[in-house]
Amino acid sequence: MQHKTRIQWHAVLIGYTVDFLITLAVVNIGVALEPQILSGSFFATPIGTIVAILLTLSVAVGGWIAGRLARHERFLHGFLVGGIGIIMLLIQGFIDGPAGLDAILLQFTATILAGFAGQLSQWPAVRQRK
User: Fold this and answer.
1) pLDDT, position 1
2) Which of 24, 27, 57, 114 minimizes the number of CB atoms within 10 Å of its CB?
3) Could you report the per-residue pLDDT of 78-110, keeping only the tens digit for each?
């Protein structure tokens, strides 16, 4: 008897990888535009606010991809993309010191948003005509 796993980890890891790559690009552009962006609150400046929104949306994109690839339990797969982000935030806290409250709240918000994005992945963007 073959056991079917509930979680498709390849989908979650691909979604997280896409999120990570988008995050690298957004953070690098944000730091180039405003070098002190990572030293304080994201919401202290307009550039920081835009970066925070884009980082949240990048987790949602990763969640959408994970849900699309998994094809079942889409919310769970999208949510797990954000969950990996929470784990990485905790690991980073042990290395670099604790994250700011805004970064923690953004990651938790992004995790929930990624779950909903994973659920929304069941609907194709463009419906094909028959």
Assistant:
1) 46
2) 24
3) 999 999 999 999 999 999 888 888 889 999 999
Long-range own/partner contacts, residues 37-43 (CB < 8 A, 24 or more apart): 40/100, 41/100, 41/102, 42/100, 42/102, 42/103, 42/106, 43/102
DSSP state of 128: P
Q: Are 38 and 96 in contact (CB under 8 A)?
A: no
In the block, tokens 């987790």 appear at: 59
Provide the 8-state DSSP code for 40.
Answer: S
Neighbours of 31 (CB within 10 A): 14
C-alpha angle 37-112-117 in degrees, rounded to nearest 5 = 100
Nearest to 11 by CA among 59, 76, 69, 78: 69
